[in-house]
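Letters spell out the chain; backbone shape is given numerically. Both lines appear below:
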Amino acid sequence: MSKMTVEAVEEGCRTPRHGGCRIPATLQCPPAPKKKPVNGRQRSPPMNGYFQPPDLEVIFAMAPRS
């Protein structure tokens, strides 16, 4: 038998160094977020007035403490 020499070639995983594989550097920052437009106008009160039930005070009246 003859002795053979084996050269260990370490070709494991490597980071690609090709220019097409690189992440491009950003040249400008993205613009600042814009405010949402305020699309609420103040509503006018109803023409006939607000509904006022006669027994509304009774519902919210506090019972006297004993």
